[in-house]
Amino acid sequence: MTHTTDPTHTVIPDHARTARRARHTAILAEVATEEAEATETEAATTDAALIVPLHLRIDRDLDTALRARADTEHIPTSALVRRLLRHAVHDTGESGLTAAAVEDIARRVTREELGSR
Asked: CA dihedral in degrees (41, 45, 46, 49; nearest 10)?
């Protein structure tokens, strides 16, 4: 039986060394398999997503506000805009105005119209 020493100068029998190498090889194979699966999943997700470039003309203030918010949230500006657009499109809840607020606006507009005559 042959013995080798590790960096700490401990004597390691060959069968232990062979077993350790087999474990390392198995771990490396498992990691490679997981990475391949992750790559396949990412590719499938990308293929499934419809990527459509959208170009918008916005004023500098809106650009500055979007970039600042994206920086605060530590995400790219494009990711923030996508999230805001998705939220706006899929939000079927309240419009943000209550019936009372709409009535108040209507009364104010009516008073202004009647006052200008």
From this structure: 170
Question: Can you give the residue ranges of every domain in the chain?
Answer: 1-50, 52-117
Which ranges constitute the DSSP H helices of the chain?
14-48, 60-73, 77-90, 99-115
What's the pTM value of the predicted model, to 2 decimals? 0.39
pLDDT tens per residue across span 66-113: 999 999 998 888 888 888 888 888 776 656 677 788 888 888 887 777
Q: What is the pLDDT of residues 26-40, one digit of tens each?
A: 999 999 888 888 888
Contact 22, 14 (CB under 8 A): no
Cβ–Cβ under 8 Å, residues 59 and 67? no
66 contact partners, CB below 8 Å, separation of at least 6 = 58, 77, 80, 81
Nearest to 54 by CA among 28, 22, 89: 89
